[in-house]
Amino acid sequence: MRRPLKHLDQPNDSVLSTVLNCCHVSFSEPLYTAMILKQTNVLEPIRPTVRAVIYRSGDLLVQVKQKRGSAAYLTLPGGKQDPGETAAEALIRECAEEVGTTVTVGPLLHVAEVFKTKADGKRHQLELLFACEVSDNYVPVMGPHPDPSQVGTTWASPASRAAEFRPAYAAALTDTAPVYLGVFDG
User: Fold this and answer.
1) Could you tell me which PROSITE patterns the record lists for this protein (predicted)?
2) Could you tell me where in the chain the CATH 3.90.79.10 domains are found?
3) If one looks up domain 36-185 in CATH, what number appears?
4) pTM for this entry
5) DSSP characters for the chain?
């Protein structure tokens, strides 16, 4: 259960009051807290990751991935931002590689923190989800350089197939969702 943080314009905590006395802080939407356990065995550094949120007739463009011995799952197109690359440049490159098309990158919609378990620890990813568009005649295909576990590309309903998404933020991708979606297992 999420609950709004204290209103920052009326702090009652002396430490928060001291911080706010030295600078002006304002937010356009409520901030939320979540029950979060501190992650352990986290690899450095935090990895910036970009994701494309592309809708057509209520469905999302997704990659279908499957690792050996595991069930298939869905994920948004995108990936690691390289040094010197803007978020938009990374998203355009990743979509061309993975879903074989050029995207028009729109506004930032959401931010999520994802912890992916790897052989030597957990990778902490800061995922930036951008509204994107593809041409009207785009048919889902795998791009020329798909992810190693990618087995397909398709349109999928985030509501009816929410359980198949990894990370599990598909159900949160609504018009009323806050910018910060929270923390997810990858």
Assistant:
1) NUDIX (PS51462)
2) 36-185
3) 3.90.79.10
4) 0.77
5) --EEPPPTTS--SHHHHHHHHHS----SS--EE---PPP-SEEEEEEEEEEEE-EETTEEEEEEE--TTS--EEE-SEEEPPTT--HHHHHHHHHHHHHSS--EEEEEEEEEEEEEEETTEEEEEEEEEEEEE--TT------SS--TTEEEEEEE-TTTTGGGBSSS-GGG-STT--SEEEEEE-
